[in-house]
Automatic annotation (TrEMBL):
It comes from the Eukaryota. The keyword Ion transport does not apply. Residues 87-106 are annotated as: Disordered. CDD domains: EGF_CA. InterPro entries: cEGF, EGF, EGF-like_Ca-bd_dom, EGF-type_Asp/Asn_hydroxyl_site, EGF_Ca-bd_CS, Fibulin_C, Growth_fac_rcpt_cys_sf, Nephronectin_domain. Belongs to the fibulin family. One of its GO terms (molecular function) is calcium ion binding. Keywords: Calcium, Disulfide bond, EGF-like domain, Extracellular matrix, Glycoprotein, Repeat, Secreted, Signal. It is found in: Secreted, Extracellular space, Extracellular matrix. Pfam families: cEGF, EGF, EGF_CA, Fibulin_C. Residues 88-106 have a biased composition (Low complexity). This is Fibulin-5. Residues 1-32 form the signal peptide.
Amino acid sequence: MLFELRGLSWSTNKRTLSFLICIICCIHCGRSQTCTDGFTYDRRARQCIDIDECRTLSDPCRGDMQCINQNGGYLCIPRGLYSQPYARNSPRSNPEPSYPEESYPDRSLGYSEPFIPNVPPAGAGTGPGSGPSYPIVSRTTPCILGYTLGADGTCVDVDECEAESHQCNPTQVCINTAGGYTCSCTEGYWLVGGQCQDIDECRYGYCQQLCANVPGSYSCSCSPGFLLNADSRTCQDVDECETNPCSHGCLNTYGSFMCTCDEGFELASDGTTCNDLDECSFSDFLCQHTCVNTPGSFSCICPPGYYVYEDGRSCEDHNECESGNNTCTAAQVCFNFQGGYTCLDPLRCDPPYIELSENQCMCSAENPACRERPFTILYRHMDLSSGRSVPADIFQMQATTRYPGAFYIFQIKSGNEGREFYMRQTSNISATLVLARPIKGPKTIILDLEMVTVNNVINFRGSSIIRLTIFVSEHPF
């Protein structure tokens, strides 16, 4: 009997021990349950439920951003993206509505169907307009914003940079991140007022001598006579005398060098060779045209068509027409210009024009062929020095007859293909031909200068031409 009692006691203790072990295991299992980030374990529901960071965190979003709770996290989104306003015009005195506790399924392994939390309908409160103060966003997809459902049923990140759905400025660079993106500036730029602006590194003295700022970087260089060191920032002097650049003596200076000559010599224009003392090198104005050095002196010479004047330095035009040193016939007219001459043939007027004088042709208004032609063509000649300074007034044109109610238009009708000239009207009846660009000779230019007469009173429009022949000399005298 005693043995049986002892056996009963042992049996009872054994059952009690098993019960205690079971309770410990259950407690241990409950405490060892873990959830992914953004979820917490609900002991009562024995499952992981979402953490509403928008309610639990203090000011999770800054500025004009609205906090939107998501499964496993939250988003800060501009208010304009949602149809329901985030804030009321005035604070409400109504108490915060209470909502029934949600039974959140365990989504740690993904979503098999869209999940929409039970949100009480608008107006389901104790006061007018009561309800949640945050926008109600319907979850029509199983993925949070910034992700999309992939072909394998999992949520994959949306590359806003590749899809060009980002809001970065054109000066910024879009960098994709998990669930979103960031806007940044490339190296050598910094963000100023929402725009990426180049950093001017040259302002901070990165280079010893010369600095050139380039977009996103900078480049150092050295002045003549220096070499850039291996650090690409500092410069060192070049000893040019080591290469023997001078014909006699050489003196190195900081950033350059200087050549010296023995007695009886002078330094040439190249700065390295020594020549006999050349008086012509003292000044470019010793001779008007060409200076020729001679031992201990110099002489001046002039180009063909000119002779050396009494001062021994100036050049004077040789007038072949006055001296008779020309080849013009008796029927021709000799026209002298700087450095030469030309023989002008007698005037011949091309039909339907007829000769009005020795230098003017006329097209009669009675001739039907003259209806669309200038009334008169007057021939003029002038010479022009090569390389004359510009702008320069070189010829004047004026109406010789004035009619009541008429006005005049002056223009270059032809011959100005190189745009060396233009007309400047100086009064109602006159204009000046202006040389706008230097002309290099020898060259002959023929310009048709037109004067258009317009009279609206009698409905008249006509024109006259001055055919100006310009002989441009070869030398600038």
